[in-house]
Amino acid sequence: MAGVWPVAEIRAAEDRVRAGLPEGSLMARAARAIAVQARAMLGFGYGARVLLLVGSGDNGADALYAGAQLARRGIAVQAVAADPARVDGAALAALRRAGGRLIPLERAGDADLIVDGLLGIGASGPLRGALVPLVRHASDSPAPVLAIDLPSGVDPDTGAVAGPAVRADVTVCMGALKPGLLVGAGRLHAGRLLVVDLGLHAELAGLTELAQPMIRRLDEDEIAAALLEPGPDDDKYTRGVVGVAAGSQAYPGAAQLCVGSARLGGVGAVRYAGHAAHEVVRRWPEVLVTETVAEAGRVQAWVVGPGLGSTSDAVKSLRGVLGSDVPAVVDADGLNLLVERRQLLSDRGAATVLTPHDREFERLFGPVGTDRIAAARRAAAESGAVVLLKGYATVVAEPDGHCYLNPTGTAALATAGSGDVLAGLTGSLLAAGIQPGLAAATAAYLHGAAGARAAQDGPVVASDLLPALRAELAALTT
Ligand SMILES: NC(=O)C1=CN([C@@H]2O[C@H](COP(=O)(O)OP(=O)(O)OC[C@H]3O[C@@H](n4cnc5c(N)ncnc54)[C@H](O)[C@@H]3O)[C@@H](O)[C@H]2O)[C@@H](O)CC1
Ligand SMILES: [K+]
């Protein structure tokens, strides 16, 4: 399990760990890890050329100490400083002793690797002053980029990028994951993530005295563990039945896609209620169909909304689902109908999962803004529902503030019908008995992984996600 920690908590944990160690040893550990990764990226040693971009804080000092280690191995190391008068003196002396040089940007030659040591967790606001041309230099260079702790220009807590920012191939993250590496534009800028163990995690757990970190990123093993496998005593009812109230005469495809994925989340059966019953049963003969939610019979969770439209029948379906005493996923048209009917949420006894994209979110809760985690948390607290805020990195927030940041996904998932598949899958995981926040996070993970899998074979349309989901589930559970 990977905890993700706000900068203030990481700093507090670092201070405690540092207090119990000899001076400089944390930074030495950081520098070693950076140098090892730099050499791995170079693929060769002697004669390679490395350019360090050096800021005025400890991020810059990390770069200089790592550069010193590289220079000792015969690598030609040049350093350019944002402000030469404010670089860490001891770190610069170490680089010079090892044969590295501080030069003005104009004299920087071609490099085989650029190390971004401009800003780490001390960053605040958009890049200022001399940092901007240095970041431009990195963007214009064909050399791969290793970012120390965080790509400079990315907000450590939110991932927001408000101006020029480093695009890293690899980010060597110090001690603990920061939200900015996993969410918003920051995720795109971070590239591949490696976390260096600085002994912070015990301190972080102790500081917060929480059973679970407030923000988490689930890994493959946790997803596999969340998926409940049927036992020998299970039948179709004990495994859970999911109800789908989606699609309409105008949008029968949304019903087919939503039901298509609802079949895959480990339930024993799927019930469909709506005006696309004919199309659903033609595509998926195993599904039990009715015209209305009231006629559908017992289910353990509902999905309502995809392709539902805004007719009086659509409103009836929404009321029927939210009036039930089982967990429900509300997506797409269901969310739009909720805007004028917020009472339906506050009257609920059972759990609700809302799955908005940004525009749907804005209609219900106001603008998302640059802090996607804070936005999802605010909406969850306000609505009492689990809020799954879709995006390149999907955020799932629970009403008490616990969050999951989804690590999977691909831009290829921004395609019509993709959300219908996500909603159906979330509903079936709920019906199978998984807790709402975990069900939403698991669905986002599987959906993202299925998208990436499907994208390997070419352009992705939503129907492709169904076989890819099956393959993903098989890979996880066998
Ligand atoms: N504290 C520790 O024990 C450790 C810290 N480490 C490194 O230290 C880093 C944090 O160091 P610092 O706290 O010195 O902070 P940073 O090195 O991130 O930068 C702080 C400096 O940048 C300037 N700055 C902030 N935002 C700016 C902006 N938008 N434009 C231009 N300048 C800006 C500030 O005025 C300040 O001088 C971590 O990210 C990590 O790389 C590691 O060495 C591991 C150990
Ligand atoms: K950096």
TrEMBL record:
It catalyses: (6S)-NADHX + ADP = AMP + phosphate + NADH + H(+); (6R)-NADHX = (6S)-NADHX; (6S)-NADPHX + ADP = AMP + phosphate + NADPH + H(+); (6R)-NADPHX = (6S)-NADPHX. Its EC number is 4.2.1.136, 5.1.99.6. It comes from the Bacteria. Catalyzes the epimerization of the S- and R-forms of NAD(P)HX, a damaged form of NAD(P)H that is a result of enzymatic or heat-dependent hydration. This is a prerequisite for the S-specific NAD(P)H-hydrate dehydratase to allow the repair of both epimers of NAD(P)HX. Bifunctional enzyme that catalyzes the epimerization of the S- and R-forms of NAD(P)HX and the dehydration of the S-form of NAD(P)HX at the expense of ADP, which is converted to AMP. This allows the repair of both epimers of NAD(P)HX, a damaged form of NAD(P)H that is a result of enzymatic or heat-dependent hydration. The keyword NADP applies. PANTHER family: ATP-DEPENDENT (S)-NAD(P)H-HYDRATE DEHYDRATASE (PTHR12592:SF0), ATP-DEPENDENT (S)-NAD(P)H-HYDRATE DEHYDRATASE FAMILY MEMBER (PTHR12592). (6S)-NADPHX binds at residues 58-62, 120-126, 149, 254, 307, 357, 420. Homotetramer. This is Bifunctional NAD(P)H-hydrate repair enzyme. It comes from Jatrophihabitans lederbergiae. Residues 10-206 form the YjeF N-terminal domain. AMP binds at K390, G391, Y392, A393, T394, G419. InterPro entries: Carbohydrate_kinase_pred_CS, CARKD, Nnr, Ribokinase-like, YjeF_N_dom, YjeF_N_dom_sf. Keywords: ATP-binding, Isomerase, Lyase, Metal-binding, Multifunctional enzyme, NAD, NADP, Nucleotide-binding, Potassium. Its cofactor is Mg(2+); K(+). K(+) binds at N59, D116, S152.
